[in-house]
Amino acid sequence: MKEIVFATNNAHKLREIREITGPEWRVLSLADIGCSEDIPETADTLQGNAALKACYIRDKYGYDCFADDTGLLVDALNGAPGVYSARYAGPGHDSEANMNLLLENLRGVADRKARFTTVICLATASGELFFEGTVEGEITTERSGESGFGYDPVFRPEGFDRTFAEMTDDEKNAISHRGRATRRLLDYLRGL
Ligand code: IMP
Prior knowledge:
Largest sheet: 7 strands, mixed
Helix content: 25-40%
Distance between the termini: 15 Å
Number of strands: 7
Shape: globular
Bound molecules: inosinic acid
């Protein structure tokens, strides 16, 4: 089995990534390699933040590593919260507060089109590569569902009548931003 580090301590993301990568890969988290550091995400692009995390682990711990950064881009908010999605309602990374603020800012707004974009950076001794995945959809007017994490209860992907939080992990992974970006990463790794 091949081994790779995914630079996260987000249990939800780790579970999704392990389900997508399947038995072919042993995906180690930051905790698995003994890293409890809070790696700064100070860039102003998704690419920049993904690269900061992946390169930090490669350079300091010597592992081949990938990291993801995700943004929710809402048309009526000119692409906000975007790269600042985690801190939309403040520095606390509080998903409930983030969703409240988003619903508040879209109150009475008819155009609710939005998309999730994930950028993955793969950092190895050969350099850095980027893989991207996007899912189109819309922001609902209220929360629905208990699954998933982050903004999932208020995001309904295009062509579905349920939010991500009303889907099983398999359903979400099949169409999600992270699923798409991760399958592109896997295609690349298989071709090596
Ligand atoms: P980050 O990639 O961890 O910086 O995530 C940015 C923000 O988007 C955080 O508030 C996450 O909770 C949220 N987020 C990331 N991925 C997802 C997802 O798959 N569904 C819903 N929210 C997400």
